Amino acid sequence: MRKILYLLLAVFIVGACTANRNILNEKMAKYPADKYITKVAFGQTKNDAKEAAVAELAKLFDDLPQDEASQIRRDNIISQIKAVQWWKNRENKRYYAIAVLEREPALETIKPYYATIEGQLNAVVSKIAGESDKYVKLKHAFTMPDLLEKREELDREYRKISFDGSAYDEDALYSYKSIYNKTLYDIKINAVLSGSDDITVKTYIIDALNELGFGVGEDLKTYDIELTMDIKIDNYESNTLEGLYWSTATATVSLKDVETGGIFATFSESERIGSARGEDAKRRSLVAAGKKCAPIIKEKFVEYIDKK
Prior knowledge:
Residues 1-16 have low confidence and may be disordered. By secondary structure, this protein is α/β, with parallel strands linked by helices. The protein is built from nine helices and eight strands. The strands form two sheets. The chain has a five-stranded mixed β-sheet with strand order 5-4-6-7-8. Strands 1-3-2 form a three-stranded antiparallel β-sheet.
């Protein structure tokens, strides 16, 4: 008898779920995915279900940066979310609701922000195009990364809403990035390593300049900036602890403007590391010195260009 009751209960639950699913499918048919973003939620009352569905759909942008400017923009989009359908499931006594966001009006809400940022980018591009001095061009180009980041943030929002996940005018973004990259590429940096032939410190410093967007070469015939790195390594056993090896790596770095002949940045950084293995102490001291130099070289280079 108990088995029969369990079986009847299972049939009842399946039937209830099927009935609710049929209602859901019927109501969702009015909101095709190519035109609407939808979320379904439930609650103990009709208002609870409606509020829960709207709240679920409002989480669309939760994984994106939440700064004040972007939050104002997203609040304008979230305000367009509406609970459009609701019903009560007779079996479980719960209320269900569907919240929708119409894609096209939401996308139109974002487009004016694109116009503002692209207006600023176009102004910078015009300044670059009107300049012959490559350093002045570079100074203008340094204002582009923040604008490009803001535009890419808009793209992340736009993709969330667009049906096929596409961004807005990706060709324009590619064009801006190409202009920025070319402006930086036109500044040639020649790297010269002296002292130790270990490339650890050199790698960190060159990577720091690559992160800015510059290509750095060696043995260049013509170049604008000379980057000199002199690496010294001092390895020795500890006088106080048996089996401990010390290594001190010192990197002396300078940047010279070839056109003026002036060295506009020079600094020296040292790192001392101890280890039970001499080679490990050496490697770690070089890594530490390289990591210490990398942000400094970026800062010195940007400071110089800003003053040009």
